[in-house]
Amino acid sequence: MPECFNPDHINTRVIIDCTEFRIEIPTAVDDRVVCYSHYKKGFTAKVIIGITLGGFISFKSKVAGGRKTDSQMTVESRLVDLLETGDVVLADKGFPEIKKLLMKVAKKLKL
């Protein structure tokens, strides 16, 4: 574990972030609706990546259309089911709904 994480983040299990990338314009109208990102002003797909404190990829969600929020994707990925009591998850401000989800879970997780 890198020195900068000791001792404050010793219980950190995963650092998560959502990666969004441009895709070609889908041919089906339904797919266009799901993949259009107003934030990126184009058609995108996104995936949540989780890394350990050592930098190894430890989690990857299913790919989703760019219209989904980071919070929606995290909930649907069932990442919380993989965590244990006392684990800490580091995330940026793009995950506001996750804090509510973690409060509901009986595992006493921390964001």
Strand content: 25-35%
What is the 3D form?
elongated
**Percentage of residues assigned to helices:** 25-40%
Structural class: alpha+beta
Helix count from the secondary structure assignment: 4
- Average of per-residue pLDDT values: 83
Could you give the order of the helices and strands?
Answer: EHEEEEHHEH
Distance between the termini: 19 Å
Major sheet characteristics: 6 strands, mixed
Low-confidence stretches: none
> What is the number of beta strands?
6
Q: In angstroms, what is the radius of gyration?
A: 16 Å
InterPro entries: HARBI1_dom
Organism: Euphydryas editha (Edith's checkerspot)
Protein name: DDE Tnp4 domain-containing protein
Cofactor: a divalent metal cation
